[in-house]
Amino acid sequence: MSDLSYDQSNCSLESFSEKILAPVEAVTNHISATQNYYAGFIKYLNDFMTPYLLSTNYFSEAEQSKILTASPLDSFQSYMDILDFNIDISNRFFTGSMKAINDYNSREIQKVLAACMNTIFQLEGEDVPAFFARQSKMMESVVNTYPKAIRDIEPEFGFHFERGENIKFAETDRFIVYQVLPTDKTVKVNETGKPLLILPPYVLGANILAFLPGENKSYTHCFANMGIPTYIRVLKDISVTPALQVMTGEEDALDTKLFCEKIMVRHGKPVTLNGYCQGGFSAVCDILSGELDGVVDALLTCVSPMDGTRSKGLSDFLKGLPPRFNDLAYGTKTLPSGNKVADGDLMGWVYKLKSIENEAPMVVFFRDMMMLSPKNGDEVKISKTAAAINYWLGNERSDLPLAITQMSFDSYNHPISDDGTLPVKLFGRKLNFRRIKEKGIKWLICYGERDDLVEPAVALAPLDYIDVEVASFPKGHVAIATSWSNPKSAYALHTRFGDKNHRGPVRFQLDLDKELSEKVSG
Length: 522
Known about the structure:
By secondary structure, this protein is of the alpha/beta class. The protein is 51% helix and 13% strand. The chain has helices at 2-69, 72-120, 128-152, 219-224, 242-245, 249-267, 278-288, 314-320, 344-354, 356-359, 361-371, 384-395, 402-413, 434-438, 456-459, 505-521, and strands spanning 167-171, 175-180, 196-199, 230-235, 271-276, 296-302, 332-334, 340-342, 400-401, 421-426, 429-432, 442-448, 469-473, 496-497, 502-503. The model has no long low-confidence stretch (mean pLDDT 91).
């Protein structure tokens, strides 16, 4: 009887303690969630506002010279036009923000009401203390756990050339070319195989093309792991490399020519030039200039902007700017060397502005909150892919040489002519797509079906002038370098896929090598 009495007393005490402590715990979790909410929102807001403050500084510097040369009436009209433009941006900013808040609240209000009912009537399911506990875990994930996961992915993301795992092959004052070796140690490089030189994007760098090599998600290693002699051209640090700061399109072409000559001598076969995003536009311009004749016989471009005026996003955004302000001077910064470059952080911010209704800080903040909200009481596991994407977006921006930026800027403001001539020149020569056909250069264009950065129409513009092989991939701008770079994925790069039996870029390169080898042996 005494033992039974003790057990009953003990249970009563525990029950009493839970009833006393539950409200205290709920209040504590509520306070913790509120503190993290404000800390998180301020961080997201700061990430957005820092480039904005930079832009106002550049605007002021550019206007100091322009306002002295423009008539007062023209200046007044331009300022009125930019005011209208800013009002439109602000409206989209607030509309997107309010929609994100409403979407979140409409989802959570039902859970709040259910938690209250469960608490009052002692029903099964999430009660009020559990609701606040979930909110606290969610905000802790957004403010601390998620950023930590992003920081911690750094050793696994990208090439890390400093480790010496790849071979430094050649160098100029502006670039370094590395030979990328297989991560699969059972694979040996085919030294007599057809080589490939990859030109990565300028703004967000080479590391996106070695996304997560340890997870078999690396565009570059898809080639290397097939034994293909694979090379990548990497920019030197522009902040301390004056020769890169003032680089012209002509110097880009001549450096590429030098690298291709060296690669061709080593392997005995012409090079396939492979550009990703802006690197693809540079590759096309270099080939059309005629400087790569005899050393490059094939071209691969992935999600590369060929005619920016066909963009419904960035081009329309630029067209909405008053002509006075559609000028690179408003995004130019001066380095300690005295050289002027295009600010990479500001360029990344412009891409956010064009889709401000989806990229406003409140929208991104609430999107991450919903993504990291615990499901069925279990905390959301942060994938390496999500962490790596965010690490790339937050840490890999680079400033650009003004001359290179001007080429892209021109391509988004001036269309390709009716005869296929690009709106830029190299070496004083016109660049026309038809030269690709005249020289017998095989070209595969890969694009993302839902790419909202380089829309399909922008990437496929050459089809209006010449016959070009294409390969369409689901998803967006970086899917080819992330999701589909996994050899086991549905759209693996070394395979044929889809209803139209498209060739992936690695399959394209392997087939080219086979054709070339058969031609030589025959």
